[in-house]
Amino acid sequence: MKVILRKNFSQLGNVGDVVNVKDGYARNYLIPRQIAYQATKGNIRALEEEKKQILKKEAKELESAQALAAELEKVSISIPVKVGEEEKIFGSVTTQMIADALKEKGFDLDKRKIEITEPIKALGIYSVSIKLHPSVTATVKTWVVRE
Fold first, then answer.
1. Residue 45 sits in a domain of what CATH number?
2. What pTM does this model have?
3. How far apart are CA 101 and CA 128, in angstroms?
4. Which residues contact 98 (CB under 8 A, 6 or more apart)?
């Protein structure tokens, strides 16, 4: 059965690709989960319209991510931690701590978008990157200070 993909699907292809799959796979998996349409002339036209809407939506998301990144670049946050001997902190600074500090500043971000390259285990100033969109990354200056 020939189907048209509605979503990017790693095993088969990208949006709009016409692929040939087994009938049962299409009827029982791809079509009920709205990953694909059956390849008919009407569905091809409907997919073209859907593609236009998806492109508009992605452009809006990219624009809003760039605006948020510009705002985040101006922000610096401080995270108070308990400190032991030789200025070493107990544990490490987590992405959840950073997300909570950003929430206090008015930025509600998911902790999974925050990327810490190395564990933060000492006092100091760190640059933490936040992946807002596949092509947009913001950097926030983070101060780890004594509590």
1. 3.40.5.10
2. 0.71
3. 13
4. 77, 79, 111, 114, 116, 128, 140, 142
